[in-house]
Amino acid sequence: MERVEQYRGYIKQLLTEYASYKSLNKTIERQLVCDTQNDHYQIVNMGWEGHRRIYGCTIHIDIKDGKIWIQHNMTELDIAQELVRLGVPKEDIVLGLHSPFMRQFTEYAVS
Q1: pTM of the prediction?
Q2: Which of 31, 51, 54, 91 is the most buried (most CB within 10 A)?
Q3: Assigned fold of 2-103
Q4: 69 close to 61: Cβ distance less than 8 angstroms
Q5: Domain boundaries, the chain
Q6: What pLDDT shows up at residue 64?
Q7: Residue 21: per-residue pLDDT
């Protein structure tokens, strides 16, 4: 359980830093969403560009069965590498954004 708490802290640290970067479009708000009870973490962008609604998840990370699952990443940030830099072993990181078949070809956990 201590390891999962540590992982929660790492994820919140990375996403808080990313959420602090302001969008070039001043009408777009970037929100950090943390559900620590169910271990879901997201960065969501929302706002308006003229008459067009902007809404979407930029980053989505879960913790499942003691492993960090990177579910979605639409940024240039290499989340997996940042987690490794913080001390998370590669075997505890799953690139959920890749198909189960493709995960075997990465240096990270399959599931």
Answers
A1: 0.93
A2: 54
A3: TATA-Binding Protein (3.30.310)
A4: yes
A5: 2-103
A6: 97
A7: 86
For tokens 């890749």, name the residue: 98
Amino acid at site 97: L
| Residue 109 DSSP label | B
Q: What are phi and psi of 108, to 5 degrees?
A: -110, 180
Q: How many CB atoms lie within 10 A of CB 95?
A: 20
Angle of CA points 100, 105, 111, to nearest 5°: 40
Burial annotation 17-28 (CB, 10 A radius, 16+ → b, else e)? ebbeeeeeeeee
Amino acid found at 94: V
Round to the nearest angstrom and report the end-to-end CA distance of the chain.
Answer: 19
Q: Is residue 63 a contact partner of residue 109, using CB atoms and an 8 Å limit?
A: no
Sheet of 67-73, strands arranged across: 28-35, 40-49, 52-64, 67-73, 93-94
